[in-house]
Amino acid sequence: MEKWLSLWSIGQSKTKEDMKAIKNAGFEGVEIWAEHKSAKEDLKLAEQCGLKVGLHLPFHDLNLATPYEKVGSFILDITRHWLEELGKYGGGHAVIHGGSAWASENKDEDRLKVIERLKRIREIAIEQKVELLFENQIPDSLNYMHIYPSSVEEWLNILIQTDTTACLDTGHLAVLGASLDETVKTLGNRLASVHFSDNDAKGDLHQLPGDGVSKVGTEELLKILHKNNYKGPVVFEINPYTYSLSEILLHSSVKVEIE
Ligand SMILES: [Zn+2]
Questions:
Q1: 59: domain CATH number?
Q2: Closest by Cα among 50, 51, 47, 9 to 29
Q3: Residue 52 backbone class (left: φ over 0; alpha: ψ -120 to 50; beta: rest)
Q4: Rounded-to-integer distance, Cα 13 and Cα 28, Å
Q5: Residue range 208-251, pLDDT digits in tens
Q6: Facing residues of 93 across strands?
Q7: What are the residue ranges of helices labelled H in 150-217?
Q8: What whole-number distance in Å separates Cα of residue 210 and Cα of residue 233?
Q9: Which domain range does residue 51 map to?
Q10: Ligand 1 centroid from CA 131, angstroms
């Protein structure tokens, strides 16, 4: 396994010193946040500092379940652009968020749109030698919209139908109330990346592990992942509006050796 940091965690401004500090803290890679203004510079900076790169694809305003064909083709265009950018750095993994039906009554027909668009994006990713990961989400508790995926079962079905691998966000799973142990076992070798953070089991707070209520510290997570033969990255995805970079790098959950 490898220790990675999501660059969302350090906010919009980054320096070469920040990147070096991340490397010196034992991180092997960083997940670039495509919606940061500096995302293209961040790719360069990470490479210069000897860090592996992955990408969190843009998702704001890019609803994979949109009924508008023009928005659907715009999503494919902008996603292709970012997958090509990552491809220039020798590929890696790219994470995509789900989508949402405009109303939960439409969920069955809109699921087909998500599947069709995800399949197309996966084809583009393969052309760029990038592994496409689909992340678990948090259901809409109002049940007005339907979020894809809203359950582990729905997530798994979409993964199977699109032949896509999984990015498991432990914080999203805690809000959903599903068991981490069971979910890792169910995903099996479809699990390709883990987004790691903590929360109060109500909101997606992206706290440092141990600061929330989940009681899943780094050691507990590693135990579960080892048991299931997981070998991929553990990506700390921490709230930049709560913590500074030095607070993250000095935190006991981050100092645990990951191998
Ligand atoms: Zn995540």
A1: 3.20.20.150
A2: 51
A3: beta
A4: 20
A5: 999 999 989 999 999 999 999 999 999 999 999 999 999 999 99
A6: 131
A7: 152-162, 170-176, 180-187
A8: 19
A9: 2-255
A10: 16
